[in-house]
Amino acid sequence: MAGTTARPNEDRPMLGIALMLATYLMFSCVDASAKTLVLSGTPSLMAAFFRYFGHSVIALVLIARQGGSLARFGTTRKRLVLTRGFILMLSTVINFFALRYLSLTLTATILFSAPIIIAALSGPVLGERVGIWRWSAIVAGFVGIVIALRPFDASFHWAMLLSFTNAVIFAVYSLMTRKLAGSVSTDTMQLYAGLIGTVVLAPVAAWVWVTPNTFVEWVLLLGMGVFGWASHETLTRAYGYAEAGALTPYTYVYLIYMGFWSWFLFDTLPDRWTVTGALVIIAAGLVIWMRERRLARPTQPLRRTES
Q1: How far is it, in rounded angstroms, from Cα 26 to Cα 6?
Q2: Which of 112, 96, 103 shows the shortest CA–CA distance to 168?
Q3: Cα separation of 211 and 112, whole Å?
Q4: What pLDDT is attached to residue 200?
């Protein structure tokens, strides 16, 4: 498995942005493949297993090519790393169940409430100070979530609660990743995440196994693991070429990708509630991002002018 890309002496933001766009394209391919499979009769748990199985196979093959030693993937924070991997697996399983009933655009919109949930939890969990600007954006973001979920509308589907649960779980996963960053390498976290998903889901996948009927279904099953591993690899490398603050706005391209797949594969366009909710959530997320970026800038001391 390739090592974490170190920040080069001279930033290459355009390359970082290109990698970020590629990353979210591959994320969207995983979800589009999963929805195609579950609608064709593949059990959601079986699809989730293949997502992690392919990831693990690629990671282990790359380790073998580098000498086969797992010693460098040891960590003193193994319990947290294992918990993080289990939470990521749980997020995938819930998302794949939701995809059976909801459009790709709607699940993507709800998932983008995760940064808002992270901002709300960063105070009590990480001890970060959250000011009036970010709290206002958090409240606005939750209004956007309610608009997208439309809980009092006849079109409300119980799977929307699954998708929102996935967003909360993904927010917890992101907070755990933030706590582990710096003390545990990205390679170690990704290896454990792949192995945990594979080991935990293997017996369940065997129990619910349905043999794919076509070559295309096999390609989609195996391709999810490839896209899953590659997307995390390009995401890591993107942050090696540009600052996180410069890349964050480009994560919203995920909604465009998911909208395209929803239309192209399933002939489904987002309704006005999904679009309105998405716009409110994106606006709230960008306010939080801009505020965090501003607060992260070092204060420049005033220089005394010589007369």
Answers
A1: 23
A2: 112
A3: 34
A4: 95
> Which two three-digit tokens encode residue 206?
């065997």
pLDDT score for 5: 41
pLDDT on residue 239: 74
List Cβ neighbours of 70 (8 Å cut-off, separation of 6 or more).
63
- pTM of the shown model: 0.83
Q: What is the pLDDT of residue 24?
A: 92
Phi, psi values for residue 184, rounded to 5°: -130, 130
Neighbours of 300 (CB within 10 A): 6
**Cβ-based neighbour number of residue 265 at 10 Å:** 14
Q: Which of 243, 101, 218 is nearest to 158 (CA)?
A: 101
**Tell me: the pLDDT tens digits for 214-227?**
999 999 999 999 99
Closest by alpha carbon to 169, among 93, 282, 274, 252?
A: 93
Write down the pLDDT at residue 124: 64
String of DSSP letters for 110-149: HHTTHHHHHHHHHHHHH-----HHHHHHHHHHHHHHHHHH
Alpha-carbon distance of 253 to 113, in angstroms, equals: 15
DSSP alpha helices (H): ranges in the chain?
Answer: 13-39, 44-65, 78-99, 104-111, 114-126, 132-149, 159-180, 186-207, 215-241, 244-247, 253-266, 272-296
Taking the CB of residue 140, how many other CB atoms lie within 10 A of it?
17
Amino acid at 187: D
With CA atoms as reference, report the closest residue to 60 among 187, 235, 173, 180: 187
